[in-house]
Design a protein that fits this description.
Radius of gyration: 15 Å
Strand content: 15-25%
Oligomer: single chain
Structural class: alpha+beta
Shape: globular
Bound molecules: zinc ion
Distance between the termini: 30 Å
Helix content: 25-40%
Largest sheet: 8 strands, mixed
Number of strands: 8
Protein backbone atom coordinates (compact mmCIF):
# COMPACT_ATOMS: atom_id res chain seq x y z
CA UNK A 1 0.00 0.00 0.00
CA UNK A 2 1.36 3.39 -0.94
CA UNK A 3 0.42 6.23 1.35
CA UNK A 4 -0.01 9.59 -0.32
CA UNK A 5 0.78 11.55 2.83
CA UNK A 6 3.89 9.59 3.52
CA UNK A 7 5.19 10.01 0.00
CA UNK A 8 8.54 11.72 0.33
CA UNK A 9 8.75 13.42 -3.03
CA UNK A 10 12.16 14.30 -4.37
CA UNK A 11 14.73 14.18 -1.64
CA UNK A 12 18.33 14.94 -2.58
CA UNK A 13 19.34 14.24 1.00
CA UNK A 14 19.92 10.94 -0.68
CA UNK A 15 22.19 12.38 -3.33
CA UNK A 16 25.30 10.21 -3.71
CA UNK A 17 27.31 13.40 -4.14
CA UNK A 18 26.63 14.41 -0.55
CA UNK A 19 29.92 14.49 1.33
CA UNK A 20 30.56 11.90 3.97
CA UNK A 21 27.46 9.90 3.15
CA UNK A 22 28.93 6.56 4.05
CA UNK A 23 30.28 7.88 7.32
CA UNK A 24 26.89 9.37 8.10
CA UNK A 25 25.13 6.11 7.52
CA UNK A 26 27.66 4.18 9.55
CA UNK A 27 27.32 6.66 12.38
CA UNK A 28 23.56 6.43 12.21
CA UNK A 29 23.51 2.67 12.29
CA UNK A 30 26.05 2.63 15.10
CA UNK A 31 23.95 4.98 17.14
CA UNK A 32 20.80 2.98 16.63
CA UNK A 33 22.55 -0.14 17.84
CA UNK A 34 23.81 1.60 20.93
CA UNK A 35 21.93 1.12 24.17
CA UNK A 36 23.19 4.28 25.88
CA UNK A 37 22.08 7.28 23.87
CA UNK A 38 24.18 10.36 24.42
CA UNK A 39 23.52 13.82 22.99
CA UNK A 40 25.61 14.89 20.03
CA UNK A 41 28.82 16.39 21.37
CA UNK A 42 29.38 19.58 19.42
CA UNK A 43 25.70 20.37 19.17
CA UNK A 44 24.83 19.53 22.77
CA UNK A 45 26.76 22.46 24.17
CA UNK A 46 24.42 24.98 22.57
CA UNK A 47 21.18 23.11 23.23
CA UNK A 48 18.85 23.79 26.15
CA UNK A 49 18.90 21.44 29.14
CA UNK A 50 15.14 20.90 28.82
CA UNK A 51 13.98 20.03 25.31
CA UNK A 52 10.41 19.78 24.11
CA UNK A 53 8.93 18.81 20.79
CA UNK A 54 5.49 19.10 19.30
CA UNK A 55 4.98 16.82 16.31
CA UNK A 56 1.90 15.43 14.63
CA UNK A 57 1.82 12.84 11.87
CA UNK A 58 -0.08 14.43 9.00
CA UNK A 59 -1.60 11.18 7.79
CA UNK A 60 -2.55 9.54 11.07
CA UNK A 61 -2.80 12.45 13.53
CA UNK A 62 -0.54 10.59 15.97
CA UNK A 63 0.85 13.27 18.25
CA UNK A 64 3.78 13.84 20.55
CA UNK A 65 3.75 16.95 22.69
CA UNK A 66 6.16 16.95 25.56
CA UNK A 67 9.67 16.88 26.96
CA UNK A 68 12.07 14.33 25.48
CA UNK A 69 15.31 15.49 27.11
CA UNK A 70 15.91 16.55 30.69
CA UNK A 71 18.61 16.30 33.38
CA UNK A 72 21.31 15.67 30.81
CA UNK A 73 19.73 12.70 29.08
CA UNK A 74 17.09 11.64 26.65
CA UNK A 75 13.82 10.31 28.08
CA UNK A 76 13.47 6.80 26.72
CA UNK A 77 9.71 6.68 27.03
CA UNK A 78 9.40 9.95 25.15
CA UNK A 79 11.76 8.66 22.45
CA UNK A 80 9.61 5.55 22.01
CA UNK A 81 6.56 7.75 21.52
CA UNK A 82 8.44 9.90 19.03
CA UNK A 83 9.64 6.80 17.18
CA UNK A 84 5.98 5.94 16.70
CA UNK A 85 5.09 9.36 15.29
CA UNK A 86 8.10 9.29 12.93
CA UNK A 87 7.65 5.65 11.87
CA UNK A 88 7.38 4.35 8.32
CA UNK A 89 3.63 4.03 7.89
CA UNK A 90 4.13 1.24 5.38
CA UNK A 91 6.14 -0.89 7.78
CA UNK A 92 4.99 -3.31 10.42
CA UNK A 93 7.69 -2.41 12.91
CA UNK A 94 8.78 0.82 14.54
CA UNK A 95 12.46 1.72 14.19
CA UNK A 96 14.45 3.98 16.55
CA UNK A 97 14.93 7.51 15.28
CA UNK A 98 18.26 9.23 15.85
CA UNK A 99 17.42 11.62 18.74
CA UNK A 100 19.72 14.26 17.29
CA UNK A 101 17.00 14.77 14.69
CA UNK A 102 14.65 15.82 17.49
CA UNK A 103 17.31 18.24 18.71
CA UNK A 104 17.45 19.84 15.28
CA UNK A 105 13.66 20.12 15.14
CA UNK A 106 13.55 21.44 18.70
CA UNK A 107 16.11 24.14 17.96
CA UNK A 108 14.50 25.22 14.70
CA UNK A 109 11.02 25.45 16.25
CA UNK A 110 12.49 27.46 19.09
CA UNK A 111 14.26 29.84 16.72
CA UNK A 112 11.07 30.28 14.70
CA UNK A 113 9.02 30.78 17.86
CA UNK A 114 6.59 28.20 16.48
CA UNK A 115 3.30 27.70 18.31
CA UNK A 116 1.93 24.77 16.34
CA UNK A 117 3.22 21.19 16.09
CA UNK A 118 5.31 20.00 13.17
CA UNK A 119 3.16 18.21 10.61
CA UNK A 120 5.34 15.22 9.80
CA UNK A 121 4.91 13.92 6.27
CA UNK A 122 7.79 11.45 6.28
CA UNK A 123 10.26 10.29 8.92
CA UNK A 124 11.90 6.89 8.94
CA UNK A 125 11.69 4.93 5.70
CA UNK A 126 12.46 1.28 5.32
CA UNK A 127 14.94 0.41 2.56
CA UNK A 128 12.07 -1.33 0.75
CA UNK A 129 9.86 1.75 0.96
CA UNK A 130 12.65 4.03 -0.19
CA UNK A 131 13.55 1.71 -3.05
CA UNK A 132 9.91 1.67 -4.10
CA UNK A 133 9.85 5.46 -4.14
CA UNK A 134 13.14 5.57 -6.03
CA UNK A 135 11.66 3.37 -8.72
CA UNK A 136 8.76 5.79 -9.05
CA UNK A 137 10.92 8.88 -9.27
CA UNK A 138 14.48 9.42 -10.40
CA UNK A 139 14.65 12.33 -7.94
CA UNK A 140 14.56 9.87 -5.05
CA UNK A 141 17.92 8.24 -4.48
CA UNK A 142 18.40 4.70 -3.34
CA UNK A 143 20.38 5.98 -0.35
CA UNK A 144 18.73 8.33 2.10
CA UNK A 145 19.16 9.60 5.64
CA UNK A 146 15.49 8.77 6.07
CA UNK A 147 16.58 5.13 6.03
CA UNK A 148 18.89 5.83 8.99
CA UNK A 149 16.15 7.53 10.97
CA UNK A 150 18.02 10.82 10.69
CA UNK A 151 15.64 12.87 8.54
CA UNK A 152 12.11 14.23 8.41
CA UNK A 153 9.98 16.03 5.84
CA UNK A 154 7.37 18.32 7.32
CA UNK A 155 5.23 21.42 7.23
CA UNK A 156 4.88 23.87 10.07
CA UNK A 157 1.50 25.66 10.24
CA UNK A 158 1.74 29.41 10.11
CA UNK A 159 5.34 29.30 8.89
CA UNK A 160 6.44 29.70 5.31
CA UNK A 161 8.47 26.73 4.10
CA UNK A 162 11.13 28.87 2.46
CA UNK A 163 11.51 30.93 5.63
CA UNK A 164 11.86 27.76 7.71
CA UNK A 165 14.54 26.43 5.38
CA UNK A 166 16.43 29.72 5.38
CA UNK A 167 16.41 29.92 9.18
CA UNK A 168 17.40 26.27 9.57
CA UNK A 169 20.25 26.66 7.07
CA UNK A 170 21.61 29.63 9.01
CA UNK A 171 21.68 27.48 12.14
CA UNK A 172 24.05 24.98 10.49
CA UNK A 173 22.76 22.01 12.48
CA UNK A 174 22.24 19.57 9.63
CA UNK A 175 20.90 19.13 6.13
CA UNK A 176 18.13 21.44 4.95
CA UNK A 177 15.98 20.97 1.86
CA UNK A 178 13.28 23.33 0.61
CA UNK A 179 10.57 22.02 -1.70
CA UNK A 180 8.26 24.12 -3.81
CA UNK A 181 5.41 21.87 -2.78
CA UNK A 182 5.60 23.72 0.53
CA UNK A 183 7.50 21.39 2.77
CA UNK A 184 10.95 21.21 4.29
CA UNK A 185 13.44 18.40 4.83
CA UNK A 186 15.67 18.51 7.90
CA UNK A 187 18.24 15.96 8.97
CA UNK A 188 20.97 15.58 11.57
CA UNK A 189 23.71 14.86 9.06
CA UNK A 190 26.42 17.36 8.11
CA UNK A 191 25.22 20.94 7.47
CA UNK A 192 24.28 21.42 3.81
CA UNK A 193 21.45 22.94 1.83
CA UNK A 194 19.46 22.40 -1.35
ZN1 LIG B 1 13.55 14.22 3.12
Amino acid sequence: MFDLFNRPGPCPCCDPAMAGRRQILKAGIGLLACTAIMPAGAMAASLPSLRRLRAQRAATEDVFDGVYFRDGKYDREALHKLDWVFRDLNAAEVTPIDPRLFDVLNAVADRLDADDPYQIMSGYRTPEHNASNARRSRAVSTVSLHMSGMAADFRLPGKDAFGIARTAAQMQMGGVGYYREGFVHLDCGPPRRW
